[in-house]
Amino acid sequence: MLINKTPFIRIASIRFMVSLIAGLLLPASVVWAGYDFDGDGDQDLLVGDNGSFSALLLDNGAKDTWVSGMTASGWDVMLMPDVDGDGDDDLVYQNEDTGDLLLKYYDELSGNNFSGQYYGAVSDSLAAAGDFDNDNDEDLLFLRDGGNLIVWRMDNGLKNGAVWLGAWPAYNLAAIADLDGDGDDDIVMQNPTTADVAVLVMEGGNKQVARWIGRWADNTVIGAGDADNDGDADIFLQNSDTGSQMLVQIENAQKVTGRWIGTWGGVTTRSIADIDADGDVDLVQENINTDSVQVVELEAAQKVTGKWLGTWSGFDVRGTVDAHDDLDDDIVIQKGGFVYLVEMVNGQKSAVTSLVQSSPIVIP
C-alpha cells in the first residue's frame, strides 16, 4: 500500500467495520476517502447507502462525476486496493451468505465500466491489502483460524499463488506499510494483551523475518506513515484513556527511538496524512466532545506545531484525500448526507467546499 495513498491499514469489511481510530460503528450513509478510481491523481470518495455503493470522482477539489455500478446484490464491499497496478483502485467484494470472493476492476478508459474476476467460496477471512512483492499490484492478506496469515499474490488483477506467513494467534493486525523502504509493504501486528508490537518484514511477497519492535503498555497502534521523510514508515500509538500519542521512529524496519508527541484530552487521531506537502506525515485530529478539528504538523519525526482548523458541529472526519494532486492532503468531513472538503495548502485551511448536500445521501 503506497503511503501517500492512505497510511492506514486497509482492513475489511468497510461496510460493517468499526472506525479504525474512533471505535464507532459507521452509520448507514457513509463516506470513505482516499481512493483514486480514475487514476487522475485526484483522490476520490466511495459513498455507501443501504448496501448501495457509488464513487464520487473529484477533479481539482471539486465534484466531477458520480459513478454507479459499484454494487452487486448480496455482496459487501470489503477493500479497495489497486490489484492490477493500473493506477485505478479496484473493489473486492465478498458474499455475505456464501463467502464467495469477487474482484471488480475499475478502468477509467472503459467508460466507467467494471470487469470482474470470480473466485468462489473462500474459507479464510479477508483482512487487508498491500503491495507485498513490489510489483505495483496490491496483494490480498487473509486470516485463517489459529492466527494463520496467507497472502494472495496478485498479478495484473489475477491471483498468482498463495504464501503462508506463519501463525500469530496472540497478535492482531495493526498496520500495513513499508518500514524498510524497499518497496515491499510490511505487516505491523500488536498483541492486545501485552501491547507488544512486531513486524513481519516482507520481501518479494514472502516473509523475510519477524521482528519485535517493543512494548508500550496501554498504547494501541493507530497507523503508520513516514514522519521523518526517510522512506521508512514510522509507527504511531495512542493511549485512549489519557489522550497521549507517541511515535516510534523506524529505520530499516527496526526501532530507532520512541518519542512522545503530545497529550490531548478528548482528542483522537482520525487520519495520518501529509497536510503541508513536506514529505513528513501529520496527524489530523478531532475532539470527540466539541467536534473541533486540528492538525499536528510533524517534521523530522517531531511535533512542529498544533493548528486548530475549525469546529463543525455534528460532523465527523472521514479521512483525507489529495483532491488537487498537489501533495497537500485535504480533509473530508461528514454529517449525515452532507459532505464537505476542508482544502489544505501548506498546512493552512484554504477553503471549505461542499461535495454532497442531501439527507440521506442520494446515490445516482
> Quick one: biggest sheet?
4 strands, antiparallel
| Protein structure class | mainly beta
Element order: H for helix, E for strand: EEEEEEEEEEEEEEEEEEEEEEEEEEEE
| Average pLDDT taken over every residue | 85
Portion of residues in beta strands equals over 45%
Count of DSSP strands: 28
The neighbouring-strand order within the major sheet is 1-2-3-4
Q: Could you name the ranges where pLDDT drops below 50 across 5 or more consecutive residues?
A: 1-28
Oligomeric state of the chains present here? single chain
SS field, number of helical segments? 0
Topology:
Layout lengths: L28 E7 L8 E6 L2 E8 L2 E6 L7 E5 L11 E5 L4 E7 L7 E8 L3 E6 L8 E6 L3 E8 L2 E10 L4 E6 L8 E5 L5 E8 L2 E10 L4 E6 L8 E5 L5 E8 L2 E10 L3 E7 L8 E6 L4 E8 L2 E10 L4 E6 L8 E6 L2 E8 L2 E10 L7
Antiparallel strand pairs: 1-2, 2-3, 3-4, 5-6, 6-7, 7-8, 9-10, 10-11, 11-12, 13-14, 14-15, 15-16, 17-18, 18-19, 19-20, 21-22, 22-23, 23-24, 25-26, 26-27, 27-28
Molecular structure report:
- The chain is mostly beta strands and 364 residues long.
- A hairpin with a 2-residue loop joins strand 19 (244-251) and strand 20.
- The strands form seven sheets. A four-stranded antiparallel β-sheet has the order 1-2-3-4, with no helix packed on it.
- It contains no helices and 28 strands.
- The chain is 0% helix and 55% strand.
- The model is unreliable at 1-28 (pLDDT under 50).
